[in-house]
Amino acid sequence: MMDGAQTELDSREGLAVLRERVLDLEETVDQLHHALYSRILVEQATGILAERYDVPVADAFSLLRGSARSARMNLHVLAAAVVAAERRTPDPILARVQALETARAQAPLVVR
Predict the structure, then answer these.
(1) Distance (Å, rounded) from C-alpha 6 to C-alpha 90?
(2) H or E element that contains 99
(3) Secondary structure of the chain: what % helix, strand, coil (to 5)?
(4) Cα–Cα dist 71/96, whole Å
(5) Is the pLDDT of residue 1 over 60?
(6) Helix (H) or strand (E) segment spanning residue 34
(7) Is 15 helix (H, G, I), strand (E, B) or coil?
(8) Considering just the CA atoms, what is the radius of gyration of the chain in Å?
(9) What are the pLDDT digits (tens) for 7-48?
(10) What's the rounded Cα separation, in Å, for the pair 110 and 80?
(11) Mean pLDDT confidence for 48-77
(12) Residue 47 CB neighbour total at 10 angstroms
């Protein structure tokens, strides 16, 4: 009889371990879905900005990242705003574009 009780206890402990592992894996899957969704949003926003401002993709990404930092926003939140805004550029991006244009206008001309 003792062997049957021990086997049942071992089975319950094994199921508990498996349940915990499944919960951990579900959490990992959720995190990966979120990361993929965020990356897709950032790539879409970068493409929109590259087209809108007629700049290379790398420059559009720098604009997006710099705007998010300046506005103290998460990158994916600002990217989502760019994608959702259709033709309207979100204020943090406009502010960054204006700041870059001002800095460029004030920079001394270097002749070589």
Answers:
(1) 64
(2) helix 91-106
(3) 80, 0, 20
(4) 9
(5) no
(6) helix 2-53
(7) helix
(8) 25
(9) 877 788 888 888 999 999 999 999 999 999 999 999 999 999
(10) 38
(11) 93
(12) 15
Structure tokens at 6: 């021990």
Residue with tokens 């989502």: 80
Q: Token digits for 86?
A: 């259709």
Identify which of 75, 12, 63, 73 has the alpha carbon closest to the alpha carbon of residue 38. Answer: 75
How many Cβ atoms from other residues are within 10 Å of residue 31's Cβ?
A: 10
CA 75 – CA 82 distance, rounded (Å): 11
| 95 vs 87, residue with greater confidence | 95
What pLDDT, on the 0 to 100 scale, is given for residue 79? Answer: 96
State the fold for domain 2-105: Arc Repressor Mutant, subunit A (1.10.10)
Domain ranges, ordered by start, for the chain: 2-105
Report the alpha-carbon distance of residue 76 to residue 64 in Å, rounded. 10
Return the residue matching tokens 């309207």. Answer: 88
Helices within 54-90 (DSSP H only):
57-70, 75-84
Residues constituting the chain: 112
